[in-house]
Amino acid sequence: MSDRRRFLAGSAAALGAAAVTQLPLATSSYASAQPTLPDGLFTLGVASGDPLPDAVVLWTRLAPDPLHGGGMPDAPVAVEWQVATDQHFRRIVRHGIAQALPAYGHSVHADARGLEAGREYWYRFRVGGQISPAGRTHTAPHPHSSGGSLRIALASCQNWQNGFFTPYADMKAQNPDLVLFVGDYIYESAPAAGSVRVHEGAGEPYTLEQYRNRYAQYRTDPDLQAMHAHAPWVVTFDDHEVDNDWAGEVPQDPAKQTHEAFLTRLTAAFQAYYEHMPVRATAIPDGPHIQMYRRFDYGRLIRLNVLDTRQFRSDQATTQAGAQDPVMTMLGAEQKDWLLRGLNRSPARWNVIASQIMMAETDIQQGEGKLWFYDAWDGYQTERNALLAELGAVRNPLVLSGDRHLTMISDLKKDFGNPASAVVGAEFVGTSISSNGDQDLAAFDAYWNPLRADNPHWKFIDAHRGYHLFDIGRQSVQAQVRAVSTVLKPTATASTLARLRVESDRPGVRLLG
Ligand code: FE
Ligand code: CA
């Protein structure tokens, strides 16, 4: 049976004879209006994301020549999508047509609605005779449900040039319900000869086509593609999706580009980001702005607040005094209000904050006095400390972060300046998928061990590549630090380096071993 016939057969069998006339894929008029398309449209795979109790976003991008602009004709293409309750697509419960437009790089974002809460689905796309690989996804539980459990994988920082994305092969085997990705999905750095894998292009991306090619290259990674097809993702970006350490409308090197030029770069970077992520239409960029902070409720078990710690922040401080200046903001007034409202009125047992960058203090000055990294929350002391004070009144706050390329698991203290102050929550800083390559344990120990006394809130720190896995139930969060043996080869073995637990209504995190 041809792929096309199989696709049709599955649909008709599921819906019965009466429903066949409603099938858009059966109408030849629309099919004949399609431009002639090259083979191999689905080189970038499929993805799903931003699950709601009744909906999930289904993604693909038609790109027969992914590293050179995509290779599609300059015309809209109608793409059929199907959602089934079984992996053989015998029971198709939703279907429709989405337009893949040249203006959006022929990406497809189908917001499949009318689904049942808290269940598994399979989805796929078809264009002409070409059928995509099938993806598996999962809706969020019913808003009133209070039981159950959720397995979340926390990932960040996947530098193509530093290694293969081997942690995703293990993540898939661990079968999470949701992947939370907190930034550095691509790196904007120029191709570097001698890397494990070399970036496409001739330099850093600036234009839309250059960013598209960079995302497309990352999406060709087989482990990343398989993980996208295996579970829904909730994503946010950090700095490298645009430019290292950018803040608001300020680039890394303001002296090297005009404000106008950086706005043009932000516009291109955000558009390519939207095109490649399984996010809702609310994230369609408006020039150099994109709406990415948003909230997901998993029944009454989890409220997930996804932050944007780049677009609204003040430019980084350069001194300890600057980091303590009350004018410094990380979230901007609007997002801060939105976050506090969502925390204070939350019905959830666990209040998760997905923050790109680390919230707990990192004091990098041995002994007397403190020295902070100014790009992290430490560089925005007044706002961070006010937020920590608020967390004291929030049920079970749990901060999940990235950026550091290290595992750092800490108690969150009401006041890091006072070691006797209350513990208000826990933070897990996921390591990196591949950034920094394989760990140098001797260098890690030499730098960080002397700083342990300065950072008594640390419960576990480590330099291996991998990700964190959380089993969230009503009584506790069981966490595992999953590490791979290497990212310098396409395959690796994986193991649990540490197990930790957070008990409900007992602030702080405990290392189990
Ligand atoms: Fe990173
Ligand atoms: Ca110190």
Kindly list the characteristics that best describe this protein.
513 residues, alpha+beta, seven-stranded mixed beta sheet, 11 helices, binds fe (iii) ion, binds calcium ion
Explained architecture:
The strands form 4 sheets. The chain has a 7-stranded mixed sheet, with helices on one face. Strands 12-13-14-15-17-16-18 form a 7-stranded mixed sheet, with helices on one face. Strands 3, 4, 6, 7 and 8 form a 5-stranded antiparallel sheet that branches. The chain is built from 11 helices and 22 strands. Mean pLDDT is 94; it is low at 8-29. α4 runs parallel beside α6 and α5 (208-219) runs parallel beside α7 (259-276). By secondary structure, the chain is of the alpha+beta class. It has helices at 3-15, 17-20, 28-32, 167-174, 208-219, 222-230, 259-276, 320-323, 332-344, 381-391, 441-448; strands spanning 46-49, 56-61, 77-84, 92-100, 107-112, 120-127, 130-131, 135-138, 150-155, 178-181, 233-235, 294-298, 302-306, 350-355, 397-401, 407-413, 423-429, 458-462, 466-472, 476-484, 494-503, 506-511. The structure holds fe (iii) ion (FE) and calcium ion (CA). The site of calcium ion has 7 residues, from loops.
Strand order of the largest sheet: 11-10-9-19-20-21-22
Spatial shape = globular
Number of strands: 22
Percentage of residues assigned to helices:
10-25%
Strand content: 25-35%
Average pLDDT reading: 94
The chain-level structural class is alpha+beta
Number of helices: 11
Spell out which ligands are present: fe (iii) ion, calcium ion
Radius of gyration: 23 Å
